[in-house]
Every structure is written in C-alpha cells, then in structure tokens.
Amino acid sequence: MIHKILPVGVLGCNCSVLGDETTREAIVIDPGDDVSGIVEILRQHGLTAKTIVITHAHIDHIGGAAKLRALTGAPVYMHEADKMLSDQLAVQAAWLGMEAPENPGIDTPAREGDVIRAGSIAANVLHTPGHTQGSISLYIPLESKVIAGDTLFAGSVGRTDLPGGDSATLARSIRSKLYALPEDTVVVPGHGGLTSIGEEKRHNPFVRGV
Ligand SMILES: [Zn+2]
Ligand SMILES: [Zn+2]
Q1: Residues lining ligand 2 (ion), CB within 5 A?
Q2: I want to staple 30 with a disulfide (CB 3.0 to 4.6 A). Which of 61, 76, 134, 147 is the partner?
Q3: pLDDT digit string (tens) for 160-197?
C-alpha cells in the first residue's frame, strides 16, 4: 500500500493518501487544506481518488473536501452526527480568522462496521465519538495501522471543550475501540507524529489502557 502523509493547513492536519499499487485506486483522508498538494501526490503516484473520508467535521480536516471532490469526482464519506459542525464551517472559519470553505455535505454516511475499499486496501470504520459526536477512525488490519483523526495523539487525546465534545465519551471510545486493537498497530493521529496502540495504552497520561 502506498501511504503518504501530508500536513495541511495552518493547524497542520495530517492528510493521508492511501493508494493500491496495482489498481492505482486511492482513499484520501482529511483533506483539510492544500488541495493542490494532495492532487500533486495523486498525480505523482498515478492514483485515482475513489473516496474522500472525513474523520470529523472540524475545518482543519474538512476544509478542502468540496474542492477535492470537484477536482476528482470522489464522494465524501462522513458520519452524520458531525453534520451540524459541517453546517457551521463559517463559524469555524471565523474562529481561525480565515475565509469559509464550501461545505461538502455528506455523499455517503459513515457507519460503524463499514469497510472502505480501494483495490486491495480495506479500511474498517470505527465510530469513536468524544472529540466530536461523529468522529470516526479507520483501521487497516493488513497494514497494522489506524488513522485516528483527533481522537488519539502521541501522548495526548483530542480536546473535548469544543461543541459536541465529551471527555467520558472520548475515554470510552479510546478504551473500547482503539485500545482493543493489537498493540503493534501504528497510530496515525490527526496532528503530530506517529505512535502505537501499545505505547499509548501504557504511557498516555490522559487515558491509560493497562
Ligand atoms: Zn478536531
Ligand atoms: Zn484537527
């Protein structure tokens, strides 16, 4: 599997491009901004975007989705519990002092247990609310990777003081969905460096798993 991680936008959201080496089909996760950089990665690797996945509707993760869909034709996949947040992109943009991007809406609603495919890539959808009500994580068993959005970070967890956030729900999602994955699973967080499930279970100061 091709996996390129591109930090996009002023908040440095980790946008992931997953590509199948044979079929050249791709999944783009969290195109928050810098759509031209994302399109360039697709072009360089000869990839065609099949699905645009939004882990949650904060502007740094969803901001470039409408533009990327216009350029690639790929549908936007997101959980409906975050629709309220994407309907408030103008408010989110005002917080950051930036121009409001177009709201992409939802083409395909995300559901726990869905499997998103691109060629031989299979990403299992985990509903992991807490940072926002509609937050999802993508687990790719064959690669031992989980794309965690802003649910879990290296040594930290997502903030829960924004609208829709809830700390008890976040801790439950992390313990029941993410810490349940094999310990050697690499965690690709929404911001910052990579970590592993085992490392966070033992050392995360906010949500301990053991
Ligand atoms: Zn967020
Ligand atoms: Zn974020």
Answers
A1: 60, 150, 190
A2: 61
A3: 999 899 999 999 999 999 999 999 999 999 999 999 99
